[in-house]
Amino acid sequence: MDFHDFGPDMSAGALSVGAPGAARQHLVVIGNGMAGCRAVEELLARDGTRHRVTIFGAEPHVNYNRIMLSPVLAGEKTFDEIVINGHDWYSDNNIELIAGDPVVAIDRAAKTVTARSGRSVSYDKLVIATGSDPFVIPVPGHDLPGVIGFRDMKDVDAMLAAAAAGGDAVVIGGGLLGLEAAHGLSLRGMKVTVLHLMPTLMERQLDESAAWLLKSALEARGQTVLCGADTAAIVGDGKVEAVRLKDGREIPASLVVMAVGIRPSVALARAAGLAVGRGIQVDDHMVTSDADVLAVGECVEHDGQVYGLVAPLWDMCRSLADGLLARENPYRAAATSTKLKVAGLDVFSAGNFSGGDGCEDIVLRDAARGVYKRVVLKDDRVVGAVLYGDTGDGGWYFDLIRKGESVADLRDVLIYGQAFASGGGQADPKAAVAALSDDAEICGCNGVSKGKVLACIAGGAHSLDAVRGGCKASASCGSCTNIVENLLALALGDEVQAGAKTMCKCTSYGHDDVRRAIVEQGMASIPEVMQTLHWSTPDGCSSCRPALNYYLLCALPGNYVDDQQSRFVNERMHANIQKDGTYSVVPRMWGGLTNPRELRAIADVVEKYNAPMVKVTGGQRLDIFGIKKEDLPAVWADLNAAGMVSGHAYGKSLRTVKTCVGSEWCRFGTQDSTGLGVKIERMTWGSWMPHKFKIAVSGCPRNCAEATIKDFGVVCVDSGYELHVGGNGGIKVRATDLLCKVATEEEAIEHCAAFIQLYREEARYLERTAPWIERVGVEYLRAQIADDADHRAELAKRFHHSQSFSQEDPWAARAAGAESELHQPLLAAAE
Amino acid sequence: MTDWIDIGTLSDIPPRGSRTVNLPGADPIAVFRTHDDRIFALVNRCPHKHGPLSEGIVHGHAVACPLHNWRISLETGEALGDDRGCTPTVAVRMTGDRVEIAVPMKVAA
Ligand code: SRM
Ligand SMILES: Cc1cc2nc3c(=O)[nH]c(=O)nc-3n(C[C@H](O)[C@H](O)[C@H](O)COP(=O)(O)OP(=O)(O)OC[C@H]3O[C@@H](n4cnc5c(N)ncnc54)[C@H](O)[C@@H]3O)c2cc1C
Ligand code: SF4
Ligand code: FES
């Protein structure tokens, strides 16, 4: 070891701080990105006493997770949520952050770096972690305003600004980055065309078959994908207007994102005279051609190789930190795996899948489920895997690739995945995780093995967040969250604290997993679900039971016996509980219409039961307040007698259908909005949903019924009906997306039924249509409902089938005496 | 001395549900039956803002208050998790199939 580096006799006069006895070396890092900060973290974790750290960052931010820029663009995360190290990390560790001030020169002889602002700092050790620059194809027009890369927060901001203005976007490059950009932009409402030079998408990660499935799925979501598209020029006058291809086609665009590749950012190192090939050349401990200058991350070239994924960078950071402390831990390149971070599209690839001499393929295609799997073997060892549609076994295959052991015994069942191959045959993720070996890699992004996760849990990390903080597993792209949660459940049993994605603390499964299992395994009761999926509590809790009850009800219309005890009091009492324990009662008023008979009945109820208040609701009907539990059946009987039924103001179900006056009276009305609203309410009332559901029909674009903030809204126009979905007027206002336009009432009604059914079948419990649509994308809905007449008809049919069991007035049965004990105390007679 | 009062049979209370008992001069009482057929009784008033606990979802040996979802232990009447507060418990015993509760005698005024 270089003893003089931290010996008491400091010869390097550059040291500026000198706390007594603390002859700390000054470590300067250029680049406040993923590798630069991780290298510092690794160093501090080993020994925080030997270095004083200064980090220069060109970006005006703290250290954030670059990988997660895609979810930020897609609206799934905010910037704050992707910060890895906030300001407190820098201050807690005495790190000086100089953000927004890029280093422009390194003077190796004087051992100083100089930033753009003129600030100059001397170093003992320098780490260059400048990452990569997006490659810009030098076609004419490449420097027009509106042409950007996809690399940092500034690019995301530029894309969001462009999307806010609407219009067309072209993404050049159909690799991981390009497709994630395209996905985000299309969720943000832009019409997106992806131009890809090669004949198939993501050709570096996917084989032809998987790429084809991916392309069809993207097209079904409304993106245009052009393969074999060679860009000739970007055209525009002062700003980008279109992209011209070599075959003459021109695609209009107000935004062009270039995502054709990255180049290691080496200018600074080259100017300083360091050895540079494709990247900054480093040895096994990340030392450059100058012993006091190290380099790490995407800017380096190691053993002839350059990098574009984070997993290998974490290994580099470990080698770098060990090297700085004179410990031997040489960096070795390892196989990498990739996943596409596009919600709802599961794509995984690892190792070598292009085949070649001596390679054999095992392929499984399940067209109905949209699943494609291909495992590549060489000499009975797994060397590559491509998974599309079902990527659950990705980690297992990746583990097999890295181990390189013979799989001759497993060969026949290999393609069915780990659970099957290990003899279970049952899809039990906990058992699958339990079966993994200790050195199986769980988190590809951070290179964390199962053994390390378990050690971290054993060391006191008892929640997902704690594990993420402790060993980083699932802290980057998050796609291994499920596995980590299963490990937590495995290690801690009941103690496990629910992570963001599990249904509640009673289970390690998320809503979607549970729901899928219910349907696939034909489960028929709440206890059965809890038994089969290893619930950790005897009878669940107030979060999971209502959700399970709904999922079963939706899966088995007509056959499932509703569990009243798993419903919130309002749905059990068919009225809304108030702060004083009394109830409010809202009878249905179809489409907001009423008449003297109904008004009289309501007036009579108010007087007869001394209701302290009656009020017009925001949903166009009347709400009677202050009714006692004991009086509810009698109140309902009186309302029933006037022809009124429950308004379900209390339910995760259809609430109101709000209408305006429409063509019958209004001088602007184009269609009979009132009539259509009544028809729709008659069709949809009584149905149970993941959350409450509100509808409105407006007679013209003046939109007096506020249809564009409803879950389903119709705006009538001269030529037909505009159908809007996913609006919300509540806590977070969201205007609807236009689903499509139709010509007739019948079509409007069919679309409504199909939309509701898709929502019923696919949204998570307590997820309203607005967040659901943000999650799956309106393009997906269009593909399922607007563009596919057969599928729409199927959905509508399933909705009508389920409605045939739910359109019974719950009040009538109670008024007739059913479950009267629910309304009466024990010993009532004794009182 | 406590008086045991017969309030009915086990089957009068739905599993994972509850019934109320109103005795003259006493606070309203909620009697719960859990998944394992244990019976518990509490004063029917949430320590938070006095929600009627009898109307909550019963799970394990706890009930979730219907107003703001505090979870109250049926065994101790204490709020669980991060919430703080306590509801008085009422002693219960089974005599054969009959459920009896003990109403503490009121101190003479
Ligand atoms: C009665 C009414 C207020 C009124 O007097 O006008 C009302 C009353 C309540 N609303 Fe509402 N909302 C009422 C119209 C609305 C509207 C307007 C509308 O429907 O056109 C909205 C915004 C539109 C929307 O939902 O997108 C609205 C957004 C909410 C929200 C926020 C929902 C969201 O997704 O952000 C809640 C909270 C929740 O559901 O978790 C809520 C919850 C409630 C609850 C159920 C609070 C509760 O849990 O006890 C209130 C029940 C009072 C009761 O006992 O009746 N109420 N609430 C309205 C009943 C309409 C009806 O006839 O059924
Ligand atoms: C949108 C997107 C999605 C991605 N998704 C994935 C994924 O799913 N999985 C995966 O494995 N990888 C993914 N990657 C790649 C991953 O982000 C990179 O591999 C990783 O960020 C590289 O880390 P780095 O530290 O080398 O570079 P960076 O994180 O880019 O950090 C370099 C930093 O140095 C700064 N800098 C440059 N020059 C100077 C200078 N002269 N002075 C001061 N500062 C300077 C830069 O501004 C930057 O902040 C994705 C990348 C992007 C852009
Ligand atoms: S806005 Fe809705 S939830 Fe809030 S107080 Fe008014 S009625 Fe109640
Ligand atoms: S009153 Fe019980 S939780 Fe608020």
From TrEMBL, chain A:
Protein name: Nitrite reductase
Name of one Pfam family that matches: NIR_SIR_ferr
Residue ranges annotated for the FAD/NAD(P)-binding domain, each copy included: 26-300
Gene3D superfamilies linked: 3.30.390.30, BFD-like [2Fe-2S]-binding domain (1.10.10.1100), FAD/NAD(P)-binding domain (3.50.50.60), Sulfite Reductase Hemoprotein, domain 1 (3.30.413.10), Sulfite Reductase Hemoprotein,Domain 2 (3.90.480.10)
Pathway, per record: Nitrogen metabolism; nitrate reduction (assimilation)
Domain of life: Bacteria
Record's keyword terms, sorted: 2Fe-2S, 4Fe-4S, FAD, Flavoprotein, Heme, Iron, Iron-sulfur, Metal-binding, Nitrate assimilation, Oxidoreductase
Residue ranges of every copy of the NADH-rubredoxin oxidoreductase C-terminal domain listed in the record: 337-404
Residue ranges of every copy of the Nitrite/Sulfite reductase ferredoxin-like domain listed in the record: 578-642
Cofactor(s) needed for function: [2Fe-2S] cluster; siroheme; FAD; [4Fe-4S] cluster
GO terms, biological process: nitrate assimilation
InterPro entries: BFD-like_2Fe2S-bd_dom, BFD-like_2Fe2S-bd_dom_sf, FAD/NAD-bd_sf, FAD/NAD-binding_dom, FAD/NAD-linked_Rdtase_dimer_sf, NasD-like, NiRdtase/SiRdtase_haem-b_fer, Nit/Sulf_reduc_fer-like_dom_sf
Residue numbers binding siroheme: C704
UniProt: [4Fe-4S] cluster binding residues: C660, C666, C700, C704
Domain Nitrite/sulphite reductase 4Fe-4S, first and last residues per copy: 651-790
PANTHER family: NITRITE REDUCTASE (NADH) LARGE SUBUNIT (PTHR43809)
GO terms of molecular function: 2 iron, 2 sulfur cluster binding; 4 iron, 4 sulfur cluster binding; flavin adenine dinucleotide binding; heme binding; metal ion binding; NADP binding; nitrite reductase activity
Entry keyword Calcium: no
From TrEMBL, chain B:
SUPFAM superfamilies xref list: ISP domain
Gene Ontology BP, a term: nitrate assimilation
A Pfam family it matches: Rieske_2
Keywords: 2Fe-2S, Iron, Iron-sulfur, Metal-binding, Nitrate assimilation, Oxidoreductase
Gene Ontology MF: a single term: 2 iron, 2 sulfur cluster binding
Record-annotated Rieske domain positions: 5-101
Listed PROSITE patterns: RIESKE
Protein's recorded name: Nitrite reductase
Source species of the chain: Sphingomonas endophytica
